[in-house]
Amino acid sequence: MRNDATRMSPPRSGRLLLRMALLSCLAAAAGSGASAAVPAVPLVAPPPPNPLAAPIPPAERMASDDPAVLGVVSLLLPQDMLEAAVDREFDAGFLKAFNQDPQSIAVEQSYPGTRDAALAAGRGAAHAIFSEEFGRFRIVYAGILTESFTRAELGRLTTFLRSALGRKLVAMGDKIYDMDSLQAAMQSSLAGPPLTGQAIARSVNPQFVDALTDQEIKEMARFALTAEGRKFTALNPRVQAETASWLNNVFQNRMGDVQVAVVRAVSDHIRKLKSSH
After folding, report:
1. Residue 200: pLDDT band by 50, 70, 90 thresholds?
2. DSSP assignment, residue 28?
3. What is the residue extent of each domain of the chain?
4. Cβ atoms of residues 273 and 28 within 8 Å
5. C-alpha dihedral over 195, 167, 74, 23, to 10 degrees?
6. Strand pairing partners for 177?
7. What is the pLDDT of residue 47?
8. End-to-end CA distance of the chain
9. For residue 2, what pLDDT is reported?
10. Exposed, middle or buried by CB within 10 Å (0-12, 13-18, 19+), for 68?
């Protein structure tokens, strides 16, 4: 059971963290909106300096813990919604993997309750990892905002994100990306080069606009042409690079925590069953 639990847990839990992180790349939606029918152009090299993304002088920047900054971060990265999704999707993925594995089923038959013990432990570990690591990413994202937006621009960005279209784009989340392509890139990075911002950019799914009305596409394009919209789009490569860095850290340093939690929970459960007989 040790090998089975270890094998089935990390890929799915890693996929969940990948899904959540990609909400931070909502800027891709604004950038693609101006030419919705044209696929995003893959990045093959670091982009040249963009004056729109030039940092604001330190003396003129808002503080990272300014309520206006934290408000935008919360709108873009709604933690309560994301944590609920982590729990929900972890359960679905774990149960599917467990119920399709003959050895895991055999262990459950011999030691009833093993599946539930493993599920609870894995879910708890995945939730804890997400909450801890995502908190760190929020800090990074806040820093990007303060370096790039004036208070007035951030206010207008807030207005857009609170609009019906802004809320819809955030709720769409990973539909903006080809998750299978991203998952393959992430899995490859475990044994090869780290995931890059270019890989995330190449995974933008232009078909996400199928979920938008013509009017919403026009509204998104108008936003992309505003000062704040142009900055938001210009920051895309940096956001994607920071997302890739965060994901690499989570996958390389934290997925073992899920494995350990599942294996120990299963071991403790079986030990208790044996001692009670």
Report:
1. low
2. H
3. 2-34+53-275
4. no
5. -10
6. 204
7. 42
8. 20
9. 40
10. middle
